[in-house]
Amino acid sequence: MTAVLDATNTRTLTYAEAVREALGQAMEADERVFLLGEDVGTYGGAFGVTGDLVHRFGEERVRDTPISELGIVGAAVGAALAGMRPIVEIQFSDFTAQAMDQIVNQAAKIHFMLGGAATVPMVLRTPGGSGTGAAAQHSQSLEAWFAHVPGLKVVMPATPADAKGLLLAAIDDPNPVIVLEHKLLYKQSGPVPDGAERVRLGETAVRRTGGDVTIVATGVMVSRALEAAETLASQGIQASVLDPRTLRPLDDQTIVDSVTATGRALLVQEAPKTGGFMAEIAARIVESSAFGHLRAPVARLCGLDVPIPYAPQLERAAVPQVEDIVREASELVNRW
Amino acid sequence: MDLTKDAAAARETLRTMWTIRRFEEAVDDLFARGLMHGTMHLSIGQEAVPAGACLALREGDYITSTHRGHGHCIARGAELDAMMAELLAKETGYCRGRGGSMHIADVATGNLGANGIVAGGVPIAAGAGLAVKLRGGEQVVVSFFGDGAVNEGAWHEGVNLAAIWDLPVVFVCENNHYGMSMSVGRAFKVQRLAERAAAYGIPGVTVDGNDPQAVHDAVSDAVHRARAGQGPTLVEAVTYRWKGHSKSDKNLYRTREEIESWREQDPIARFERAVAGTLSEVDIAACRDEARDRVREAIRTASAAPDARADSLTDAVYAGSDR
Ligand SMILES: Cc1ncc(C[n+]2csc(CCOP(=O)(O)OP(=O)(O)O)c2C)c(N)n1
Ligand SMILES: [Mg+2]
Questions:
Q1: Could you confirm whether A69 is annotated as catalytic?
Q2: By CA distance, what is B150's nearest residue in A?
Q3: Which of A17, A90, A283, B24 stands 20 to 30 A from A157 (CA)?
Q4: Catalytic entry in A21, A138, A182, A280
Q5: How far does the signal peptide extend, from start to end residue (chain B) (predicted)?
């Protein structure tokens, strides 16, 4: 399903501003909502996302923490259990590794383990992705880690509007939600609704419709796929571009419907190929009724199976670029 | 050793500090001119800590370093051109352009790595100390980390392991007053970070981190204890970072006056005054000029080197021929 934006109520914001607006609106609307994380206060966040929120809501609700990721996430789990609506910022998604026990063994499972008697309504926002020269420990795309854990919801907004709307929905959600933002998207602008409209978790967005090939992409790959689709169109190839937006829950039906129509699927992710989330989408396609409509093998275009290197030309070579998507898609269409 | 009275030691200390300063000023400049990419964490103002600490080490000793690691690398005797080449993303860089500033390390000088993960090096230092102990060697490990690292779980686990097993590790905290924007005053209830040592049953000392002599004395004592099998020590060196945390820092969390007051305690200027009776003006100027010339030469050599090659990326992930 495509999210329909009411053009009269939108203005242009950057992705970072859209996140900040959602945080501000959620804190205004609900006193239980508060933020905690490293340098989210006066510094305004490592990527400037929380900005001036500390001046609007004070240091109690926009809470700077020591460098203690496990403690931060654990404190959020505890506060959520005790009736609050904490939103954690982890400066780089790589540092969720420090907090993994609280995310995976605690937050994800408490509701189930306690037989439904308790809930953990918390949000963990964190930027992933490469492209800034920050090298191997500051550039990973770890969505598959989280998507593999029952009990977590996993969100990957690709546009400013979704950065706001999905975050608001995540804050409402009674479960722990991991929101994987992308550092290269923070400065991208787009139309964003004024109000606090939610974008429901679990609805794949159809960003573009074309009959020859379905390109499924996440995160920063969505805008690259759309750019590639323009080039492909000039070559006579019409591509649909689908953005799942949430990996858990996953709206695979919209993907299956599109692949049923086009007969070809190119799945694009920044993360390394092996064990990546696009393998899950590939499996959903071939397990579905779309299988009989396939005119080509399901294709994946992914990051190389390497840590992200520092040198700019190496970093570029490690993850799919627009021209790679164009090449793979046209090969898929022309060969099959 | 008296670094101010012994002419050779005075010269070496001064040279090391000037080299770190000039190297990082050059990096800052290259970055500002768009000739260097990524992000940089500069240790300008903190040079006395690596200079004083590494003088207490021998060949074969190890260090673990941090995201702010140029100084540690230089003080252990790394080649400036391979460092500069790394930062300029060249094939001749220490990490073949794969690591950059945050992972810079000259393994040949016992540097087990700068680290992009705060406190990441602390348990690694304990492990290197364990290796030394298991082999029955005489080496020691110096683990550098910032004040911010002291609140990570990894720090506590690493220090405790070293403590209970009497490992030959010296934990050197570069307390520069801030972890990014978080002041030590807000992040800790203890007055001195060295107090944390008591929790692990090891000695903890706090020293003036802008005085290479004070750092050297404390680290030398700790190194002696470590070599003698008496286990680890925590040395807190109090210093100050002049530049922003990284390139995104707008310095909103501290005042201009505070920065200025620490610039007045410049560890290099202080040391130059302290060695005035030992080294002549000419000697001191020579240390300065040598540092400048070496850095210039490193930029020249590194700039002429070939860019890091993208063709062999996947080959570089696993060690050994069996990929
Ligand atoms: C586990 C982890 N959390 C957060 C960060 C982001 N970060 C990098 S350096 C830094 C501050 C570190 O402070 P400190 O240890 O005092 O060292 P300093 O930067 O002052 O030298 C932070 C928060 C990180 N790199 N790793
Ligand atoms: Mg610090």
A1: yes
A2: A67
A3: A283
A4: A138
A5: none
Q: Is the peptide bond before B212 cis (omega within 30 degrees of 0)?
A: no
Residues of chain B with confidence (pLDDT) below 50: 323
Cross-chain Cβ contact B313/A306 below 8 Å: yes
Domains of chain A, each with CATH number or no CATH: 11-193 (3.40.50.970), 205-335 (3.40.50.920)
Domains of chain B by start residue, with CATH? 7-304 (3.40.50.970)
Residue B245, min C-alpha distance to chain A (Å): 10
Please give the Cα distance from A39 to A91 (Å, whole number).
9
Which tokens go with B314?
């996947």
pLDDT digits 0-9 by tens, A55-96: 999 999 999 999 999 999 999 999 999 999 999 999 999 999
Centroid of ligand 2 to alpha carbon of B171 (angstroms): 15
Q: Is A100 on the interface with B (CB under 8 A)?
A: no
Interface predicted TM-score (ipTM) = 0.97
The pLDDT value given to residue A123: 99
Region A242-263: mean pLDDT is: 98
Q: List the residue whose alpha carbon is closest to atom 13 of ligand 1.
A: B179
Nearest CA in chain A to B316: A306
pLDDT in tens, B191-204: 999 999 999 999 99
Cβ–Cβ gap B182/A39 under 8 Å: yes
Task: Sort residue B2 into left (φ over 0), alpha (ψ -120 to 50) or beta.
Answer: beta
